[in-house]
Amino acid sequence: MELKDVIEQYRFILDHSFDELCIVDGNGTIIYMNATSQKHYGKDPSFFIGHPATRAQDEGFVDHAITPLVFKEKKKVTIIQKTNIGRQLLITGNPIFDESGNIMLIIENARDISEIRDLQKRLEETEELVKRYSEKLESLEKEQQSFMGMVIHSTKLKNIIEMIQRVALTDSTIMILGESGTGKDELAKIIHSSSRRNDRSFVKVNCGAIPSSLIESELFGYEGGAFTGSKKSGKMGLMESANGGTLFLDEITELPFDTQVKLLQALQDRKFIKVGGTRPVQTDFRLITATNRNINDFVKEGRFREDLFYRLYVVPIDVPPLRERKDEILPLLQYYINYYNKKYQDNKSLSFQAVSLLRHYDWPGNIRELKNMVERLVVTSTDDIISYKSVLSAFGHTGKLSYINNEKTLGELIEDFEKDIITQCYNELKSSYKVAARLGISQRTALRKINKHLGVNGSGNQKDRY
Questions:
Q1: Which residues are CB-neighbours of 256 under 8 A, at least 6 positions away?
Q2: Which residues make beta-bridge pairs with 330?
Q3: Exposed / middle / buried, residue 187 (Cβ in 10 Å: 0-12, 13-18, 19+)
Q4: Residue 150: inside a domain
Q5: Residue 139 vs residues 151, 309, 352: alpha-carbon distances, Å
Q6: Among 399, 365, 356, 394, which Cα is nearest to 377's?
Q7: 136: part of which helix (H) or strand (E)?
Q8: What number is the average pLDDT over the span 413-417?
Q9: What CATH number should be reported for the domain holding residue 8?
Q10: Segment 296-334, tens digit of pLDDT
């Protein structure tokens, strides 16, 4: 085989190498570059051969050249190089010296690591997402207790919390619907604390508490001298204060109609203009809204913009009232009794009759009313055990209580009352013998009623179990 054929064969092999191969002489001029380079820079190798090795950098094909570094360091150098067509190259320049110690040639090998870097980035993002899900699920109970009143016991509220854990890691706009006192504020805080924005501000705005004449300047801020009585230095608005974090607009239906227009524009453009200003202010926040009104009626009656409604109604969360999750009442009573005992350094507890009375009340004020009622009972009761009469006295008059449900018979009401007593007594004492002693019944009767109301399996050594 002739020398020419051998050279062509080697050239053919090198042109099919996955890696780019570039040879630079002692003067810094490229004397060889294989065909792989075209995939990295979008140019035929002939464009670079015979030119200085810095041409790719000088003309914007790469962010920086490796050849000058090798000449400077006089040793092997490895760097990450970014090209003009979005590739990332792991490039190594290896010098070859002559007998006098001068660089004679530099052999440069470049491998495209773009896909590896992309995969690594996606893997890291996925691992971070999985980590966040795991952390939030593991700490769910702890987080719920950390927000006042968010005692999670009913299936309805558990489903809401599970959905919140899913959507919190996104930036989707959320609207929380529910009666006054159902815990909308606490849910908004849980969403923020579970999000990637939890290290930034959580800004709450009660749209119904700010006069309509001031709501726009409070929300968007104003420039100095914008109106009579304004600060000369101007003022940052609540929307700007929430930048990077979460903006919670409570009682959103109370927002004046003209302010609704400006809010819609700000949400669409991700920027707004302060009152009296001309310069747009960029902003980035997660928006949560809440209302205790029927917002659909507001839209139908023309009191709330339909286009803004659809912008806000991305992920609706409907919080049921406390009367629809009665199984939450007992855990809430226990939670707040413990909370106010600790706060006021007391040791109060509720009698069985008091618990049963409170459990069957409809709580039109929801969790807020229950919380205030427990505090009132703890601070006003003269006895350590809060009695049935104390509860009646705290309500002011018996007419407010709706213990008797018209849909239940006397037998069903008695059954509910018995279940309340057995449940509270067993949860406190953890023993059928002690329950029997407390209630003045036989241990066998106590055990039967515990099995009946709490679903405890009565098989096996009952004395050891209870």
A1: 212, 215, 216
A2: none
A3: buried
A4: no
A5: 14, 33, 32
A6: 394
A7: helix 114-138
A8: 72
A9: 3.30.450.20
A10: 999 999 999 999 999 999 999 999 999 888 888 888 898
Q: Which two tokens stand for residue 73?
A: 């360091």
Looking at 19-23, 95-99, 122-126, which range is the least confident one?
122-126
**Cα-based distances in Å from 368 to 47, 290, 462:** 75, 16, 42
Task: For 85, list phi and psi in degrees, rounded to 5.
Answer: -105, 20
Q: What angle do CA 289, 294, 299 make, to 5 degrees?
A: 85
Report how far residue 12's alpha carbon sits from residue 24's, in angstroms, rounded to the nearest whole number: 20
Q: Tell me 58's DSSP state.
A: H
Structural domain boundaries, residue 35: 3-112
CA proximity to 181, closest of 362, 417, 403: 362
Q: What's phi and psi for 80, nearest 5 deg?
A: -100, 125
In this structure, which amino acid lies at residue 145?
A: Q
For residue 391, give the 3-state DSSP assignment. Answer: helix
Question: What is the amino acid identity at position 327?
Answer: D
In CATH, what number is assigned to the domain containing residue 347? 1.10.8.60
Q: Is the residue at 426 inside a domain? A: yes
Confidence of residue 168 (pLDDT cuts 50, 70, 90): very high
Would you tell me the crossing angle of helices 352-359 and 410-429 to the nearest 10 degrees?
120
* Cβ neighbours for 321, distance < 8 A, ≥ 6 positions apart: 178, 179, 182, 363, 366
Q: Are residues 213 and 313 in the same domain?
A: yes
pTM of the model: 0.57
Is residue 176 located within the same domain as residue 304?
Answer: yes
Buried b or exposed e, range 260-293, using 16+ CB within 10 angstroms: bebbbebbeeeebbbbebeeebebebbbbbbbbb
Domain identity same for 286 and 380: no
Q: Please classify residue 79 by burial: count the beta carbons closer than 10 Å to its beta carbon, then call 0-12 exposed, 13-18 middle and 19+ buried.
A: middle
- The CATH code of the domain that includes 306 is 3.40.50.300
- Which residue's structure tokens are 């669409």? 268
Is 160 within 8 Å of 319 (Cβ atoms)? Answer: yes
Tokens of 162: 């599970």
Q: Indicate if 213 and 234 belong to the same structural domain.
A: yes
Q: Are residues 461 and 343 in the same domain?
A: yes
Residue 199: CB atoms within 10 Å: 8
Domain end marker among 71, 95, 112: 112
Alpha carbon distance 323, 361 (integer Å): 8
Q: How many domains does the chain have?
A: 3
Residues 429 and 386 occupy one common structural domain: yes
Can you name the residues that pair with 81 across neighbouring β-strands? Answer: 89
